[in-house]
User: Which sequence fits this backbone?
């Protein structure tokens, strides 16, 4: 009997429980709709997040590809620049070498001309000296001959006069 009374008491004091088959009330419908809207929003957010993540990944990949291309271009430009600098350096060295060779040839030619001029000048001086010496020698010989001739003539004249006017 106690059980019966407890059950009766419980049934009278507790609010009646709803059965699961009752039609939902408007507030429950709203909650359900809000829950569905929230689920839709969450799924949209999730999709947006995924799209954003994919977009970021795509942008990151594009950025990485762009950086790689720029690095390749920079490396190629640097190599070309190094090659160009090396070519310029070689050209400068060739120009310097050519200028040095020309200067050396010019210097050698100038030295050769100077040497020839010096030789000519020395030869001319020597020739002049020889000519002067020859003329001087001739002059001395003429003087000696004159002296010898005058001595000879004076001896001859003395002999002739001594023979012809005794």
Assistant:
């Amino acid at each position: 009997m106690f059980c019966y009374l407890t059950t009766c008491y419980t049934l009278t004091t507790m609010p009646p429980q709803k059965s699961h088959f009752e039609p939902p009330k408007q507030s429950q419908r709203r909650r359900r709709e809000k829950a569905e809207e929230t689920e839709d929003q969450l799924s949209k957010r999730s999709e947006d997040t995924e799209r954003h993540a994919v977009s970021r990944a795509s942008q990151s990949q594009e950025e990485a590809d762009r950086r790689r291309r720029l690095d390749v271009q920079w490396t190629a430009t640097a190599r070309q620049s190094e090659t160009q600098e090396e070519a310029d350096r070689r050209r400068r060295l060739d120009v310097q070498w050519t200028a040095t060779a020309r200067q050396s040839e010019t210097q050698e030619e100038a030295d050769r001309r100077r040497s020839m001029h010096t030789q000519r000048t020395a030869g001319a001086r020597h020739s002049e000296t020889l000519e002067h010496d020859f003329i001087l020698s001739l002059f001395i010989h003429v003087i000696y001959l004159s002296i010898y001739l005058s001595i000879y003539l004076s001896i001859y004249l003395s002999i002739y006069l001594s023979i012809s006017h005794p």
Summary: The chain has one domain: 36-164. The radius of gyration is 68 Å. Residues 50 and 120 are 101 Å apart (CA to CA). The chain has two helices and no strands.
